[in-house]
């Protein structure tokens, strides 16, 4: 009778060992997960500090007139930051543009849908535009939801310029050519004086609307700063966790005046 009892006891011990091993494994897994979570939080915190440092560098370089200097920067201890500066005026503002301008870019039906959607709630990002039936996914680069709504003649592509009332393809091409050779236009009257009589006539017929819409400098700028730890000097390499800070600023000669700040 001792044999079966010993066998049962042995099986019980084995089951206990298996159960304890499972408990230990779960415990170790939880410890590893907690450790990894802590490391990720530390990396994101360091990334946020790095992004903040980048914004301070942008401010200093703007004041010093080094506006095109946007190289990735090592902040030491394998911490990096980079930034980009874009002009919302290089695109059409989906929240402010006239329906006719929108229709020139995406068609009347889609333009009408955009106007109806923004009437209920202004677009806070570009992504919701893709949910509008018929909106071309490739055209998101022509739109923005930031800025006061003006189109910067010295930053917008020809397709955006042509969408504005009174600007013919000839006038748009002339504007793009002048800024390409480093001699951008500074006024609408200057543009009118450099195009053919036909293009000038079209421009003058819509002059009041163009003066209201077209600018010749950045009204606002969008500065996006990224900070990360590791992955060399490229934020996308190795899946490094990145912290992003986005600020909308008014460019002044002596500083960048922040009017909106977002963290992503």
Quaternary form: single chain
Outline the biggest β-sheet: 5 strands, antiparallel
The fraction of residues assigned to DSSP E strands is 15-25%
Termini Cα gap:
71 Å
Mean pLDDT: 85
**Structural class category:** alpha/beta
The count of strands amounts to 9
Question: How many domains would you count in the coordinates?
Answer: 3
Radius of gyration: 29 Å
Helix content: 40-55%
User: How many DSSP helices?
Assistant: 8
The helix/strand order is HEEEHHEEHHHHHEEEE
Shape: globular
The strands making up the biggest β-sheet line up spatially as 1-2-7-8-9
Enumerate the spans where pLDDT stays under 50 for 5 or more consecutive residues: none
Question: What can you tell me about this protein's structure?
Answer:
This protein is an alpha/beta fold and 264 residues long. Helices cover 46% and strands 18% of the residues. Helix 2 (99-106) packs across helix 3. The radius of gyration is 29 Å and the shape is globular. The relative contact order is 0.14. The model has no long low-confidence stretch (mean pLDDT 85).
């Amino acid at each position: 009778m001792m044999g079966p009892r010993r066998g049962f006891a042995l099986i019980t011990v084995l089951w206990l060992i298996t159960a304890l091993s499972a408990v230990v494994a779960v415990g170790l897994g939880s410890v590893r997960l907690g450790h990894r979570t802590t490391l990720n939080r530390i990396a994101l915190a360091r990334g946020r500090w790095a992004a903040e440092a980048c914004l301070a560098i942008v401010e200093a370089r703007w004041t010093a007139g080094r506006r095109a200097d946007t190289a990735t920067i090592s902040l030491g201890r394998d911490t990096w930051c980079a930034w980009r500066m874009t002009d919302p005026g290089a695109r059409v503002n989906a929240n402010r543009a006239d329906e006719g301008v929108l229709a020139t870019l995406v068609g009347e039906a889609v333009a009408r849908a955009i106007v109806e959607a923004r009437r209920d709630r202004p677009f806070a990002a570009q992504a919701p535009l893709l949910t509008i039936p018929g909106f071309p996914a490739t055209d998101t680069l022509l739109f923005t939801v930031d800025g006061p709504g003006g189109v910067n003649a010295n930053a917008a592509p020809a397709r955006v310029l042509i969408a504005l009332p009174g600007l013919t393809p000839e006038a748009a091409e002339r504007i793009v050519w002048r800024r390409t050779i480093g001699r951008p236009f500074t006024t609408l009257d200057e543009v009118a004086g450099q195009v053919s009589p036909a293009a000038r006539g079209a421009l003058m017929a819509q002059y009041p609307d163009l003066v209201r819409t077209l600018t010749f400098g950045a009204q606002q700028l969008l500065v996006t700063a990224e900070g990360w730890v590791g992955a060399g000097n490229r934020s996308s390499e190795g899946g490094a966790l990145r912290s992003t800070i986005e600020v909308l600023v008014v460019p002044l000669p002596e500083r960048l005046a922040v009017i909106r700040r977002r963290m992503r």
